[in-house]
Amino acid sequence: MKILRWVGGLGLLVTTVAVIIVNRPSWIVAALVLGFVLRAAIWRNLSASLRSALPMVLFAVVLMLMQWLAGVPVTSLAAKALAVFLFSTAAFRLLPWTAAFATTRPGTTLHGFFLYLLFVRHFVIILQSEASRVLHARALCIACPYGRGALASLVWGLVSLFSRSLVRAERFYAAQLLRGFAE
Amino acid sequence: MRTVLEVRGLTFGYDSVEPCLHDVSFSVDGGECVGIVGANGAGKSTLLWCLLGLLKAKGAVRLFGEKPSRRSLARVGVVFQNPEDQLFMPTLLQDVTLPLLNRGAAAEAAAVRAQAVLGTLGLEHLAGRAATRLSLGERKRASIAAALAGAPEIIFLDEPTAELDGRSVRQLTRVLAELPIARVITGHHLDFLGRLAGRLLVLSQGRIIAEGPTQQILSETGLLESAGLI
């Protein structure tokens, strides 16, 4: 099972690189479809897997919108970014890298790389919990999700999420510094 | 007892207009348990960050007779208010081992030491679990274990009872009471600090407005009221 997870995960990483290189629109569309199917299969919960990809979908849409507003050709950059996200997060989920981390020797490049991945994973968890708090608090405050003040509250919620994330990042950094990470 | 922490004339402000710590001075002896009490926003956490050299303040801080440095901080344990700021590894054992490995300990010796510390805090059966899968009380004890792994001579705890239920507070009190090292605990949970601390410093608007034996400070109702503690 472990070998299968390694093979599958590494295959996904290779596909991620391939998505960056290819330029044929039909292949990119196929990669996107495959990416969403994989995501749903690995997460085993269709709605949750699609919901968690929503911020990245929004990012891709805003990116295309900005290209269009700036008057430059709308490229495949947004679609590629979304596909890379889908494949790399699936690989991140599939690869048994946390178990592999325990076998690496402290001070080696591989150990440092896995530590970096652990930092990223931990901060994603923090971001998710902060975002869900902000969104729940907003949902309790507004009368209707699309009514008066809904957009303003969403914008202020996102601003507060940014400042809260900074505070959490600062504390996390300080705690790890005191645990000897600079040594 | 030897003085392990000495603070003289500590002043700090996030902006140049209004300092949030004014001329703070106190000292802590080895093995002593000191409580820093104050209402929300009194400057307790800021004071801790200044003591650890994470914020640059005016005045003098001496840890074991020297400025906070890598060498002196290696003899210090810190427990943050939120355990998630400290614990992030796949297993609790790895979380407790990590500071030892960072400071050059051999992997096997670090694992043995981590198991022993987890055992002391009654967490040995959870060594293989991730911190995210533990209750808040267990996570608090786990972050204390991570802080104690390096055999510190002084431990700083920032509001350790925040959000804990009664049973977890009792467990934490028992664990901290048994520690033979110096302890500096911030908070506003007077009952908890009343059982643990031998001495209390009352912080109000960034100033130490009173200092003395715990029972004496806790009996001064007017003082506690003015500091926003009751």
Question: Could you write a compact summary of the structure shown?
Answer:
The complex is a heterodimer of chains A (183) and B (230). With 183 residues, chain A is mostly helical.
What would your notes on this structure say?
Chain A is mostly helical and about 180 residues long. Chain A has two domains: about 1-95, no CATH class; about 100-180, no CATH class. Chain A is built from eight helices and no strands. In chain A, helix 2 runs parallel beside helix 5 (about 75-95) and helix 7 runs antiparallel to helix 8. The mean pLDDT of chain A is about 90. Chain B has about 230 residues and is of the alpha/beta class. Chain B is built from nine helices and nine strands. In chain B, the strands form two sheets. Chain B has a six-stranded mixed beta sheet with strand order 5-6-7-3-8-9, with helices on both faces. Chain B has a three-stranded antiparallel beta sheet with strand order 2-1-4, covered by helices on one side. The longest helix of chain B has 14 residues, at about 105-120. Chain B is globular, with a radius of gyration of 17 Å. The interface of A and B includes residues 121 and 126 of A.
Which terms summarize this structure?
heterodimer; A: mainly alpha; 8 helices; 0% strand; globular; B: alpha/beta; 2 domains; three-stranded antiparallel β-sheet; 9 helices; 9 strands
Profile the largest sheet of chain B. 6 strands, mixed
Please describe the biggest sheet of chain A, giving its number of strands, its sense, and whether it closes into a barrel.
none
Q: What is the CATH C-level name of the largest domain in chain B?
A: Alpha Beta
> How many structural units, i.e. domains of chain A?
2
Map the helices and strands.
The complex is a heterodimer of chains A (183) and B (230).
Chain A (H helix, E strand, L loop, with lengths): L1 H20 L3 H19 L2 H7 L1 H16 L7 H18 L2 H6 L6 H33 L8 H32 L2
Helix pairs in contact in A: 1-5, 2-3, 2-5, 4-5, 7-8
Chain B lengths: L2 E10 L8 E9 L3 E5 L6 H8 L6 E6 L6 H4 L2 E4 L12 H11 L4 H14 L15 H13 L5 E5 L7 H12 L4 E6 L2 H7 L2 E6 L2 E7 H6 L1 H6 L4
Parallel strand pairs in B: 3-7, 3-8, 5-6, 6-7
Antiparallel strand pairs in B: 1-2, 1-4, 8-9
Helix pairs in contact in B: 3-4, 3-5, 4-5, 5-6
